Amino acid sequence: MDKKYLNIYNEILNKIENNQFKPNSKLPSENDFMKEYEVSRSTIRNALNLLEQNGYIQKIKGKGSFVLDINKFDFPVSGLISFKELSKKMNLKANTILKELEVIKPDNFLMKQLQISASEDIWKVIRVREIDGKKIILDKDYFNKRFVPLLTKDICEDSIYEYLENELGLKISFAKKEITVQIATDEDKKYLDLENYNIIVVVRNYIYLDDTSLFQYGESRHRPDKFKFVDFARRNNEIIKV
Description:
This protein has helices spanning about 5-15, 30-35, 40-55, 85-90, 110-115, 155, 160-165, 185-190, and strands at about 55-60, 65, 75, 95-105, 120-130, 135-145, 170-185, 200-210, 215-220, 225-230.
């Protein structure tokens, strides 16, 4: 098997990590790399494809390959933390912009996600999260109105969880999360600064109270180059004896 492309991949990656190829800069062309490494075009393309798959570059048809900013924000997968809490913890210059706030009847999809009937009311909350002047998260949240009777613009632009816990006395306990990569929708493109990206990392959240009541379903839609999703895992070495 031809391993040349792996060596080239590692050399280019090293230059990216050491800032020789700076974020948002254009990489040399395939022809330039072919001359530099004295290899075929397919070898160079294999190396560039691997760099793109691993999130280091973005290939744009007709324009070339561009270096992505690898200094991503850590986004906890297993924790239950509000955007306000996360911003403070990471010392981010962040802002929340409320786009929609209304009470609606659930459609079939939301009835299934929230496990409710068509007769129940839910809050629809659409918010854009801006970090360092870039709109890079679109949060779409749906709250069962039976548990959350009131929401206001001020609450939504500050911290809904802070309000629920401190004012309503709700005990938010645990969440189930699903992470997928999807093609960006027209809504994503409308609200977010996607630049040349056409994919979105979507974190679906099912949030439960301490009595196991499912009170919130949400989708947190992230620009793919700005986040890395982190978790902590411990191996269980207990041996089960049969």
